[in-house]
Amino acid sequence: MATIATTQIPQKRIGLVEHRDRAKRFFLLPAVVWVLAFSIFPLLYALYNSLFSFRFGRINEFVGLQNFGRLLTDANLHSGLRTTLIFVASTIVVQMILGFGLALLLNQEMRGRNVLRAIMILPLFATPVAIGYLGITIFYEQNGPLNVLLRALGIEPVPWLSNPFWALVAVILVDIWQWTPFVFLVSLAALQALPIDLYEAAEVDGASRFASFRYITLPLMTPTLFLILLLRLVEAFKVFDIPTSLTLGGPGRATEVYSLFTYRTAMRFFDHGYAAAQGFLLLVIVSVIVTLLFRRIGRLYDVES
Amino acid sequence: MRQAKPQSLVIALATVTVITACAVQPGQQPVAPAQPTPTPLGQEENVAQTVKAGELKPPVVAQPCGDNCPYKDQTVTVIVNAAGEKGPISGPLYEIREEFEQATGAKLNIVEVPFAEHFPKLLTDFTTGSGQYDISIAGAWWLGDLVGGDYILSYDQWYTDPRFPKWDIEDVQPGPRSLLEYGGKKYMVANDHDGQVMYYRRDLLEDPNHKAAFKEKYGYDLKVPETWKEFRDVAEYFNGKDLNGDGKPDNGLTMHLKVGGQGMFHFMSFAAPFVIGPENTKLFWFDPQTMKPLMDSPGHLRALETLVDLIQFGPEAMMGWSLGEAWDHFLRGEAALTFTWGDLGALAQQEGSKVKGKTGAALLPGTTEYYNLKTGQWVKVDGVNRVGNTTGGSWAGVISKFSKAPEAAYYLLALMASKPKSLIYAARGWDGVDPGRFSHYLPPAGTAKIEDYLAAGWDEKDIRDYTQAYFDNFSAKLQFPYLRIPGTFEYWTALDIHLSEAATKQKTPEEALKATVADFEAITDRLGREKQREIYVTSLGLDQ
Amino acid sequence: MLRKLSPTAQVLTVGLLIVAVAWVILPFYWAFLNSVKKPADTFANTFIPFLQFQPTLEHWVGELAIPETRQALLNSTMIAIGAATISILIGTPAAYALARFRFHRPSNRFLTTWFLSQRILPPVLFVVPFFLIMRELRLLDSILALVLLNATFTLPFSVIILSQMFRELPRELEEAAYVDGATTFQAFSRVALPLVLPGLVAAWIICMAFSWNEFLFALSLTTKTAIPMPVIIAGAEHTRGVQFWYVGVRTLLTLLPPTILALLAQRYIVRGLTFGAVKG
Questions:
Q1: pLDDT tens track for C95-147
Q2: pLDDT for position C3
Q3: What pLDDT, on a 0 to 100 scale, did the predictor assign at position C194?
Q4: How far apart are CA B413 and CA B76, in angstroms?
Q5: pLDDT at A2 over 60
Q6: B343 with B490, same domain?
Q7: Is the pLDDT of residue A19 over 60?
């Protein structure tokens, strides 16, 4: 019963209430004011902060664009960015493949689909920081459940949290656990909404299963897959809770993602101006990526163009 | 669209019911008779983590105030490292809550925050002047910021005031005592006395078979290590051998190196004898002329290379360990050596420990030559160059300037510092309060009675080694120069991260130290080089 | 989907299903196990209470006896309900306006995108400004501060989800109301609003779950009285090592409310999480 909403609203209909000018503004006003007050104002305030070097009670000095200059040469920041990019790329690729693959396989009438959906929702709404701490006990190296399982399968125990490479793998695994169900649920919903008659026609024409997938399913699913990709991208770049709770960014800086580094700059090193500058760089990076993708995705939201 | 199926609702409701049932029926235990189940395999591996807290309680010192309560209706809020009701440092607060409340009429609030969040939260509270916390059980390295920002109160005015419980600052050994004061005033009320000593398995070092095999391999007698070189040999020798008779290979040593897990302290006490020596007793962190960090000197480099080399004799998991896991490894008998705080020696005596009566303690090993930062030369020493330390937090209470109940706050801290309380705190393992007073030591160094320790469950050899090691450490002629200038929290956070990078081979020791220096420079520049330099020079007791 | 699957394919499907469900469920079960195991049983590789080990409720009782934990549960509840309610109250009229009225400068499309784009802003960018603003407003360590913040970050959800819902309503009913002389507000509140009520509740629930789970601002803006569950949970790993049993209890105490809430709104989850673009 799922469908991608693509209906265009007839212009005339909108014109119907066009004359009620004052009323319509009142409807919109609270939300707009709210966003301006709690989102745009802090954003401008952050921009202002980024021009200062300050630490409470000790330093407050105007430094111009110096904080932005530091962005270019800060090796720690660059390593945080690199870690984040690795995290974003690997989680999204794995989640898309696993989630979409599973949805394709389960795209059939079956009993208990609602139970399955209920189960798949659990990770999506599980508190990420709780999952991170739970992860400490799951990845526990000496006799933790995962290593016990691996040993039972005849595999050497893995140094999950003490080795830089595996620690990042652990963080990625937790994120995959949490968000693969999202890709699965959305893909399945969209798959079920695909027009059945196309497949019937294809079958009549003797098209193979693969051919119907290649020439019907994939093209029709592309917008949805793009949408999922976009939504995951936006959220994945913000990752903070899981590495903070699971590894504290360690060992060394191995899992210190961008947001965690910025948080540390602000709340550990009390370098508030520089932290603001870092935040803006992240905003620019994400905006550029999203803008490039959004051109293709805008049509999914049936707003008049 | 389909209706939501009832199944999911049932699942949800069932879960809710289970939780609620758990929550509202605390008394109801499952009725099943206690079958003597066979001990499952692997259970032993966790026993040490649950060493019993024991029944030993400090005597009641303060009498209830009845109708005449000095701090009636006041509230004292304490912020402390999260460790729970039976955990180190935080535990005694829960224990004393009732006695304090009855003696003063005030209420005691305890706010636990993770170690890494404690200082940021505290500084935030101070800089915003919101006065949420009356007391912080603080780390001594924060004092530069806390005193420098004029955020905490000196208790000079109350120390001799008879309204408060009596305790004796002169009882604290000079080393740890120096951390209680800053700029000639008293700020921290004595509580925990931190310093790292070496722990070794006495039974292993005295074992004739091991002695013979060791001599064969290394060409000298197996004994308590005196230099880090010997420490390495002993760790290497025992690594991979079964040390507790469970048939599984164990480790030469154990450390805690998790980022944010206080791993930087390992490096400090370890590196001291590589840099500090008879001709350089004070320089370790910065050049007092320029405030340039000294951390990338050949001495520091050799120290870090040696430390990183040692890591191969411990379990790989220790890169992700905080204190607790590292101690448990030793307590389960799975490591021959370690160097850490007083907690371990006392924990080893508690029920569940596998190493009671086997835990020797001694001053940290030293070196045979050190790098003199003043001359830029390696200097050979006669004998062994050993350096004492007050490494660690020496967690002790400070009183906020913004407190609305400063006298009640001091009352609490003085009560905990009183001699009868402190004696029991130091003798117990679980409470995290480590020895450092003359009244904690056995004669001739101090005035404690061996009977008290034996009554507290100590093994006699262990306690003699332990108190001697602490006395030796704190009274050593050379002492590691503790850092207490503003920004120390930032400096040491940077060191902690880079140390972990070196330990996990993400950076070479040289790169890690270079990165540390770069971070130190950035912090100094931000805080003001000249201001920092002046405070640093004063803290070293040097002339301007 | 149309063609019958071969028996092998069916077995494969069922097998995959079992793996997927196990993969999702096992971590929860592991948390539950730890929460009812005595500390000494933690590493005993036993998995079935009563049969393999004697479960205990002592950790649950102990945790819930701590006043700070109870306070945190209460704080989290108030933050979640408060933030979601504000978000819905402000978001619904805006959603209606975007669905029904035509705006020129700026256009509907721009406004929608503008609301949507709030999700792109990295929260970490707001840590310092919010901290300073809340300090000026004397709102540090207050529940109100977290309510305001979470309302802000969930506002895109309520606006976009609900505007999709309004858009799908046939407008004839409202037109009839206008003919009967209703004002714009009456058409909205008496005709359109009741019809989207189920969706409204679902959006409210999604906003609540998100607010409950928020960690970054809870960590940086609370010090004592307003600490919610996600911050409390951090205390389960401390200087004496990882306390498996408390990790179990605290993770479940933290996880269960939002997941249960989400189950109640499950019909709308897919739509909610895709901001209305895909119906579930």
A1: 999 988 888 878 888 888 888 888 889 999 998 899 889 988 989 889 999 99
A2: 53
A3: 92
A4: 11
A5: no
A6: yes
A7: no
Q: Which domain holds residue C205?
A: 67-273
Measured CA to CA, the distance from residue A78 to residue B445 in angstroms comes to 54
Instruction: Tell me the DSSP string of B21-44.
Output: HHHH-TT---------PPPPTTTH
Q: Does the residue B201 lie in any domain?
A: yes
Q: Are residues B165 and B263 in the same domain?
A: no
Burial of C14 (0-12, 13-18, 19+ CB in 10 A): exposed
Amino acid at C202: A
> B403 and B269 in one domain?
no
Contacting chains of B (3 CB pairs or more, <8 Å) are A, C
Nearest partner of A266 among A75, A46, A85, A66, judged by Cα: A46
Cross-chain Cβ contact C224/B2 below 8 Å? no
Separation in Å, CA of C152 to nearest CA in chain A: 7
User: Percent of chain B scored above 70 by pLDDT?
Assistant: 89
Residue range B190-214: mean pLDDT, rounded:
96
**What CATH number does residue A180 fall under?**
1.10.3720.10
CB of B318 within 8 Å of a chain A CB? The answer is yes
Q: Which residues pair with B366 in a beta bridge?
A: B227
| A301 in C contact zone (CB under 8 Å) | yes
Low-confidence residues in chain C, pLDDT < 50 = 1-2
Query: Is the Cβ–Cβ distance between A157 and A150 less than 8 Å?
Result: yes
A277 assigned to some structural domain? yes
Structure tokens at A160: 């999950």
Tell me which residues of chain A, numbers 260 to 299, contact chain C at a CB-CB cutoff of 8 Å.
Answer: 262-263, 266-267, 272, 275-276, 278-280, 282-283, 286-287, 290, 294, 298
Cβ burial C154-173 (10 Å sphere, 16+ → b, else e): bbbbbbbbbbbbbbebebee
Closest chain B residue by Cα to residue A143: B42
> Mind listing the pLDDT tens digit for each residue in B349-358?
988 889 999 9
Which of left, alpha, beta for A270 (phi over 0: left; psi -120 to 50: alpha)?
A: left
Helix (H) or strand (E) holding A286: helix A272-297
Q: Report the complex ipTM.
A: 0.90
Which 8-state DSSP code applies to residue A6?
A: -
Among B40, B87, B121, the residue with its CB nearest the CB of C239 is B87
The Cα-based distances of B148 to B126, B138, C148 in angstroms read 12, 15, 35
**Of the candidates B9, B26, B49, which has its C-beta nearest C57's C-beta?**
B26
**What's the structural domain count of chain C?**
1
Reduced 3-state DSSP string for B315-372: CHHHHHCCHHHHHHHHHCCCEEEEEECHHHHHHCCCCCCCCCCCEEEECCCEEEEEEE
Closest CA to B4 of A114, A184, C69, A268: A114
d(CA A102, CA C18): 12
Domain enclosing residue B410, as ranges: 75-187+395-434
Which of B44-53, B97-106, B169-178 is the least confident region? B44-53
Distance from C-alpha of A213 to C-alpha of A191, rounded to nearest angstrom: 11
Question: Cα(B397)–Cα(B399) distance, rounded to whole angstroms?
Answer: 7
- Paired tokens of A22: 């004052």
The CATH number covering residue B322 comes to: 3.40.190.10
Phi/psi for A30 (5° steps) reads -55, -45
pLDDT for res C74: 96
How high is the mean pLDDT of chain B? 87
Do residues B411 and B396 make contact, with C-beta atoms less than 8 angstroms apart?
no
Residue A206 in domain: yes
CB spacing of A159 vs B116 below 8 angstroms:
no
Nearest CA in chain C to B325: C241
Phi-psi region of B46 (alpha: psi -120 to 50; beta: other; left: phi over 0): alpha
Give the Cα separation of C104 and C233 in Å (integer).
49
